[in-house]
Amino acid sequence: MSTTHLSWDAKEATVGELAERAGVATSALRFYEREGLIRSRRTSGNQRRYSRDTLRRVAFIRASQRLGIPLASIREVLSLLPDNRTPTREDWARVSECWRSDLDQRITLMQQLRDNLTDCIGCGCLSIDVCVLANPYDQLGDEGPGARRLAQPCTPHGE
């Protein structure tokens, strides 16, 4: 059962309140702070207080991590946000532009993986019945290592 609750009108949150509302462990918040991804102020009793907009930063960090984006890249784009005020819609739009093409490419690759994993992926195993037709004599191995058909987004034939 919950022991803390972040009031809707609270301007700041304790580490426990922020952790509960963000759905992360308090240790994750301390780690994000050590890594320079979020900031807090300290009370006279040396307790952390986070501004409410830190919730959005934590959500952004978590979503980015789920996509496999390294913390260094997350830190880099978060550094574009202002420290002295709550980020605006325009601030977040500027941040999102940093990854738009990378995310579009990741989406394309994930769709390709989803749609083609049951077919020949050009890995050289030749174990699926269509591999011999799609990759005779492992010709795709001449292009390099790995699953050649999943190495880059598919392009329509003739391009």
UniProtKB/TrEMBL annotation:
PANTHER family: REDOX-CYCLING DRUG-SENSING TRANSCRIPTIONAL ACTIVATOR SOXR, REDOX-SENSITIVE TRANSCRIPTIONAL ACTIVATOR SOXR. The keyword DNA-binding applies. This is Redox-sensitive transcriptional activator SoxR. Gene3D superfamilies: 1.10.1660.10. Residues 14-80 form the HTH merR-type domain. The gene is soxR. The keyword Metal-binding applies. It comes from Streptomyces armeniacus. One of its GO terms (molecular function) is DNA-binding transcription factor activity. Coiled coil: none annotated. Keywords: 2Fe-2S, DNA-binding, Iron, Iron-sulfur, Metal-binding. The lineage of its organism: Bacteria, Bacillati, Actinomycetota, Actinomycetes, Kitasatosporales. GO terms for biological process: response to oxidative stress. SMART domains: HTH_MERR. It comes from the Bacteria. CDD domains: HTH_SoxR. InterPro entries: DNA-bd_dom_put_sf, MerR-type_HTH_dom, MerR_fam, Redox-sen_tscrpt-act_SoxR.
